[in-house]
Each structure stands twice: as C-alpha cells, then as structure tokens.
C-alpha cells in the first residue's frame, strides 16, 4: 500500500533526551536531508532514531511473567551498499515450551517524490520464519521499494520467558547512529546487575520510580524506570584478528541477581563458585560423566601398552579418543545424553568427546580435570560472579609432573596440547571433582611458525630452477593440513596450488607428515619459473617477493578501539638462494630493512646479499605477542605499511663482462 504525506513544515528530528518513543511515519524534511558528514561521510546508511523499551509483565498469552521488548527504528539509506539494512533478521529463542513470541511487526519505506513523502507499507506476507536449530529460529522480512535516499522504518514487539538477561541493548552496530535510547522498567522484586560495555559512554542516563507498574497476586509493585541514551554513535567496524564483536560494542547488559515476591519467596541467581562447583560436579551430564572410568577399564591397558611414561600414556589415550567419536559440529558444556551413548554411536558434541577423554585419562591414572570456556565468537565470560550460560565449550586438562596440557579431541588434525583457535579466548574455569574450581589462561602453548627455503640456479636459457622446502608448525601446520584434506588426493591439492601460482611451475612434489600431527609438516616442491621482465642478455629483473607477499595491510582503520588478537605469536622466515651463471652486479634491490614494534612486540628484517655468483635474499617477520592492545594499533598499521612499501621494489642484476 502506498500513502502520500504532505511535507511537514516543522521537524521532530531534534529531540530532547528521554523523549521516549516517536510516532511511526512522522518523517520530516530534516530526516530526508540529513547530512551524513555530520557523523560519518563514508556511511552507507545511518540510524536517525532508535528507541527500545523493556518491561516485565504478566502475559495475556501465557499467564506467566514475560519480558516485553518493543523496538522502533528509522534508518536513512544513502547507497546500494546500505540496502542490506532493509533485510531484517530477528532471532527467536525457543526451548521446549519456553519460546519467544514475536508480533505487531510494522514496516514501511518512505521516498521523497515530487515534494511529498510516499509511503510503501510492507505486506505481511513478506514475513517468514526460518528454523536454525532446536533452540533458535529467525524471523525475516525485507522492506519494499527501497532506493538510494529512502528512509525505512520498522517496529515490533517481542515477548520472552527469558527474564535472566532482561534485554541487552546495543548502542553500536555496523552503521552509525544519530540517537539511540533505551528505556527499562525493572520491578522492585527483581534485582539486576547492570553493566555498560564498550569504548563509548552514555550521553544521558537517569532513573525515577514508576508507581504500581506491576501487580503480583493483587499486590502493586513499583518499578525503577531507567533511561539510557547515546548520541552520535560511530559504527562498529569489524577488522581481522578480533574475538566476538559483543566484547567491544558499546551496549547495556543485564544479569539477574535475585528476585523476591511479596509473599516472601526468594530465588538467588548470583551464586558463588562454590555453589556452582557442587551443581556441575553433581550433574548427570557433566560431573557424572567425568567419573565414568569404568567404560575404559578394559581397553586402557591395550591403548597404553607401548607407553613408557605418563606423557606418552596421555598422548596414546588422546589419539584413541580422537578416532572413537566423530564430532557432530555442536558445541556444549554437557553431554547430549551420556558418553556411553556417544561411544556406541561413535558421534557426539564437544562435551561428549572431551568428557570421554577425561574419563579415559582418569582410567589411565592420570590427573585430569575439565575446563569450561567461551569460544572466541561467543564473547568473554563474566568473572565477577558465575554465569554458566556464558560458557559454551568444554575441554580436558591433564596434569603431568609440573606441566599441564589443555586437550580437545574434536579434530583428528590437532596435535597434543594445541587447542583449536576458537578456544583461545581469555580464561576458562577448571572444574575438579574434588577441589574448588579456578581460572586458567587460555593461550596457545606454542607459536605458529613457517619457513620457506628456496635453493635454485639461473640457467643459460633464462629460467630459474630449484627446490622450495616449506616447514610449518602450530596453527600454520593445522591450517595447511586442513587445506590439504579438502582435496581427494595430494596430487589434486598440488594441482590447485600450481594453478594459484602462475609465476611458478611445480614439476615434482613431496609432502611429509600430513597425518603425523605431532611432527613438523614439510612440503618439498621442485619448481621452475622465468624471471619477470628480462631486460636483455646482460640484465635480469624480477621481484624477490613471490613467496607469501604482503599485498594488503590487514590494519586499515583510522582508530581501532579493541585489541588485535592473533591467537598465537608467529614467525615466518623466507630464504632464497640463487646461483648465477657468472658474476653479476646488483644495480637495484629492495632496501635492506630492520624495523621493530615497541615493547618487543615483533620485528621485520630484510636483507639482500651477493657473493661471487650467489645471491641470497632473506626475510624474517616476527609477531612476538598473541594480543596487541588498542593503543598499539597505530604501530602495527605503520609496521605493515613500511613492509608493503618496501616489497614494491624489484631486483635488477647486470652481468659483469
């Protein structure tokens, strides 16, 4: 349906703090002509106004306490890249009979045509729901008739049985916001811990008492009516090497501490770790499964028969479990049913596999514990008080002598003691069946290394022939093994590799230790290539940066307000040696370079040397830390900028007559 509105001669765009919700469809001249340069000249779309409110009410639909969340937003679209904001996705949580209910969806597009605003209402048939998993669904819709310059507006109401987290409000999103306001009504019988995360602070914040906002069994309950306002909020731009964006976006979070009804009933949610330890170690799907040593009593002697010490025993058990249960790609801190079923079915979630590993290691008389954690894409956990729903993953910890090893048996290509990168996220909580739980740092135990050694010669026909040997360890080896395993054979992998390297031709290959994951992955390639741009018989011109060139700076933001998290320290070495047919002079070459990051954060060394008829070119790139703080970002950006600039140089050799 299309409606026409006369252009309003006054504006509702400039609103005072705590203005509460705004009328739907009240588009103005100021809305239509908002200058994005005021907030972000590169923005593809801008939130002009955004308002949300949450309250706890007794639902007419269920008769139970429900969290009622109402959302209303108006967005200006500036370019086709901004059209994605017209594709709206609303996640819906469901757990058996506890299910969120979405209703009252209203959406329209406004275009300014011939001096008037023309409204195109969204047809209700455009709304559909997609089931994502047994716990999540998504309601989706797309606003109609969008163009460059359109203003889109939509609102909805969500009823949720999940009172624990109230409703998080994100002030930051992937586009800038001119004005964002959130109003929360919290009944006096509920106590929430409230926290503001992120770099940016509130523009305004106030609270007052809302009398008799709720009735419980006929008893009137007052509410705290709290406003949170943030103005001129920059877009949150995601860049490489970061954990969950939710860790860094400016947002308001709520976590239920306790509730107390007028009749005296009380429920405490902010428990101590001592309380949680007892619950977890007593749970049938966690603690009870850690105790299932009986499942491995008969097989452990066979598994460990060749082991000469506790470390080799632990490695044997680890390899055994990796082969017994295939990961079904589900995370979890609890067994789906029990580990015996997972062993029988030879399939299970993360917890099934790693609880089986814990039980088997314990059966081998090794000191073993569980570690619950939150993956990198799930965010960091609250350490002030236990929030078990913050955790979504479980791994094993085995203690041998004075060393501890964190183990995840979900991936056959993971070597002993190396967690998948998804698990390297701040800290985890160690769960012991007999002792109090404690925090542990989740870090990569070894740095990621690569080395490329090329030994070649320049032939009379102008071609360079030789051998490239590549060694990888740590995450570099893991990623390379996964890449190779995608193909049906090594030959197919090498064929695709050859296609991706047009300057080189691979004549022969040999890849060693693909399945021996505890050893260094080694690739040996016999190659030939013609130097780029031969300038005649007496001169030779080519770029020595044909192995892993850095062509794009991974750090391009003017300012990054969150850390650069690589997961692990890394080192890459490249050594190229070319024997020349006779003596040559170096006429031009890349500048020898030695640059370093502050606080021993890393270094880059580049050197070219010619000795008689042998030219040697060497590079070392070291990043000595897994995490660089936001204030170190400018140094990283400049570090890579200098490397890239220097790699634009070629090597020019002239034959000595």
Automatic annotation (TrEMBL):
Taxonomy of the source species: Bacteria, Pseudomonadati, Bacteroidota, Sphingobacteriia, Sphingobacteriales
InterPro entries (UniProt xref): Papain-like_cys_pep_sf (IPR038765), Transglutaminase-like (IPR002931)
UniProt cross-references to SUPFAM superfamilies, sorted A to Z: Cysteine proteinases
Name this protein carries in UniProt: Transglutaminase-like domain-containing protein
Alphabetical keyword list: Signal
Leader sequence residues: 1-19
Protein species of origin: Pedobacter ginsengiterrae
Transmembrane feature ranges: none
Superkingdom in the source lineage: Bacteria
A Pfam cross-reference name: Transglut_core
Residue intervals of the Transglutaminase-like domain: 301-380
């Amino acid at each position: 349906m299309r409606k026409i509105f006369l252009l309003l001669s006054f504006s509702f765009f400039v609103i005072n703090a705590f203005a509460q919700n705004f009328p739907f469809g009240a588009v103005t001249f100021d809305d239509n002509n908002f200058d994005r340069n005021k907030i972000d000249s590169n923005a593809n779309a801008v939130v002009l106004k955004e308002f949300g409110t949450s309250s706890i009410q007794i639902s007419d639909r269920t008769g139970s306490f429900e969290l009622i969340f109402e959302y209303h937003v108006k967005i200006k679209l500036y370019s086709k890249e901004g059209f994605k904001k017209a594709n709206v996705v609303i996640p819906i949580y469901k757990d058996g009979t506890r299910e969120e209910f979405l209703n009252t969806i209203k959406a329209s597009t406004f275009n300014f045509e011939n001096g008037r605003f023309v409204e195109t209402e969204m047809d209700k048939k455009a709304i559909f729901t997609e089931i994502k998993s047994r716990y999540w669904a998504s309601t989706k819709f797309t606003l109609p008739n969008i163009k460059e310059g359109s203003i889109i507006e939509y609102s909805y109401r969500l009823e949720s049985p999940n009172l624990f987290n109230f409703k998080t409000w994100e002030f930051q999103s992937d586009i800038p916001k001119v004005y964002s306001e959130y109003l929360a009504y919290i009944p006096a019988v509920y106590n929430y811990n409230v926290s503001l995360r992120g770099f940016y602070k509130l523009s305004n914040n106030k609270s007052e008492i809302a009398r008799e906002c709720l009735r419980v069994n006929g008893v009137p309950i007052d509410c705290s009516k709290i406003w949170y306002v943030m103005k001129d909020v920059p877009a949150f731009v995601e860049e490489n090497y970061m954990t969950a964006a939710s860790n860094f976006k400016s947002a308001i979070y709520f976590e239920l501490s306790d509730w107390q009804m007028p009749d005296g009933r009380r429920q405490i949610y902010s428990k101590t770790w001592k309380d949680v330890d007892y619950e977890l170690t007593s749970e049938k799907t966690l603690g009870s499964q850690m105790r299932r040593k009986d499942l491995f009593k008969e097989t452990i002697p066979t598994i460990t028969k060749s082991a000469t010490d506790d470390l080799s025993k632990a490695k044997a058990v680890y390899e055994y479990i990796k082969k017994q249960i295939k990961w079904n790609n589900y995370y979890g801190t609890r067994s789906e049913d029990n580990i015996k079923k997972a062993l029988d079915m030879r399939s299970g979630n993360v917890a099934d596999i790693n609880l089986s590993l814990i039980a088997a290691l314990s059966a081998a008389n090794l000191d073993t514990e569980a570690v619950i954690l939150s993956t990198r894409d799930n965010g960091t956990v609250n350490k002030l008080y236990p929030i078990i729903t913050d955790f979504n993953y479980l791994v094993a910890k085995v203690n041998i002598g004075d060393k501890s090893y964190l183990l995840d048996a979900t991936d056959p290509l993971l070597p002993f003691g190396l967690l998948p990168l998804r698990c390297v996220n701040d800290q985890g909580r160690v769960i012991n069946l007999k002792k109090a739980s404690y925090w542990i740092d989740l870090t990569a135990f070894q740095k990621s290394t690569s080395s490329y050694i090329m030994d070649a010669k320049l032939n009379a026909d102008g071609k360079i022939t030789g051998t490239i040997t590549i060694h990888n360890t740590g995450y570099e080896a893991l990623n390379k093994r996964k890449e190779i395993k995608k193909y049906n054979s090594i030959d197919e992998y090498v064929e695709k590799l050859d296609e991706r390297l047009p300057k080189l031709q691979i004549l022969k290959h040999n890849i060693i230790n693909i399945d021996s994951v505890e050893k260094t992955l080694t690739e040996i390639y016999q190659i030939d290539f013609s130097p780029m741009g031969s300038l005649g018989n007496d001169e030779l011109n080519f770029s020595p940066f044909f192995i892993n060139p850095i062509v794009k700076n991974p750090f391009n933001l003017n300012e990054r307000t969150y850390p650069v998290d690589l997961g692990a320290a890394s080192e890459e070495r490249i050594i190229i040696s070319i024997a020349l047919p006779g003596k040559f002079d170096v006429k031009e070459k890349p500048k020898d370079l030695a640059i370093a990051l502050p606080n021993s954060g890393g270094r880059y060394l580049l050197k070219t040397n010619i000795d008689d008829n042998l030219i040697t070119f060497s590079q070392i790139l070291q990043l000595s830390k897994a995490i660089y703080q936001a204030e170190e970002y400018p140094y990283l950006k400049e570090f890579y900028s200098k490397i890239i600039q220097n790699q634009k140089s070629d090597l020019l050799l002239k034959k000595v007559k």
